[in-house]
Design goal:
- The chain is of the alpha/beta class.
- The chain has one domain.
- The protein has nine helices and ten strands.
- Helix 3 packs across helix 5 and helix 5 runs parallel beside helix 6.
- Bound molecules: iron/sulfur cluster.
Length: about 260
Amino acid sequence: MSHDYGLELTSNSKVGWAFSLQRSESCIGATELCRRLCYGNGVRYQTAGQKAKRERNFRTVQLLLERGGPELLAENLVMLIDQARPRDWLTAKITGCATIVPWTVRIHDVGDFHSVEYVHAWLIAARSRPECAFWFYTRSFTQADVLALLGELARLENVQGWLSVDSDNYSAAILALCNAPTATWKLALLQDEDLDPDAIPSIAEVAKSIVSFPYHRSGRYVTPIRHKELTVCPAVTGAYELHNRVSEPKPCQACSFCLPALRR
Ligand code: SF4
């Protein structure tokens, strides 16, 4: 009998540690636009090894949920989260110094929340590691039960949740944001070249904090739309160097705009 299971983190030169899942199974709220422009289509994400890792993660998530529910999956996620601790975590605790880089995990570099049970597992895991800063972007706001629990996750002090919007789904995102308790969600905008700039004021009216990602590929990006409520991601426009040095903060850790206030 073949056995190909196991959960693994990824680490990339922009965000640092992250967890990823196979898109075809997990992106339940994917829009046509995000399917077309997803950076997961890029060469770096399409190697056999990367694809196999995301598929294995998804298969393992489903197995653990089936055999032991959210609690069993959460136990395994916590083991992963602990692997993301900076190397000087213990000595920093003893000496009272700051760690060399912050302890952060981005939930999903690729993939999304696909079921209530899966969100529940992250809720348990994030609660049990309050010193780790988590953040996530999601388009899974079209399914009411998933969205309701995602709201709970996003309201934890050590978690920041972002509703991912584009020209295909921004009305649904505005609705989700307005129906949630205050300060649950912020908005992350995928700005493609066809985005109508007239949509920005209605988005900005409901969300006071919006991060914008002008569509980019191979170092080129579309001209960013400017608005007082929009913060254009500085990593897209080249303000931060992408790198793999373990002893220096990655761009997202240094910028921290998308992270929970815990780490600012
Ligand atoms: S705005 Fe900052 S934290 Fe958010 S994705 Fe860009 S670099 Fe990362």
